[in-house]
Model the fold of this input.
Amino acid sequence: MNRYILRLFFMTTLYGINNCDTIKKAKCWLEENGINYSFHDYKKAGIDKTTLKNWCGEFGWEALLNKRGTTWRKLDENLKADINPIKAIALMHEHTSLIKRPVLISGNQKLLGFDEKSWQSLI
Done:
């Protein structure tokens, strides 16, 4: 079965925050490549801990936790101290801006971050 037909069977979901520049690039790329997707804005809709746990298992919690943004820098030092998977999941659940963006789920493919080369596998 070719990839085009497979795309009809699998829903593609893009997770992120609507006003994020990387999300805007990712949306544009998906649209330019004719990939239908739904967008889950976890600033508005939230994200459950089970999904975060699954993503941590897939990508690793260190990769999923965005320590480069202002949300991380503004956190109290006590919250950032001795970070571990359980604490990271709790922080990402409470402060969704701490989740690296985007997360893309398409069938059995799960991608973290926007990289055109790795996203080519969706076409």
Remarks:
- The first strand starts at residue 12 and ends at 16.
- Residues 1-8 have pLDDT under 50 and may be disordered.
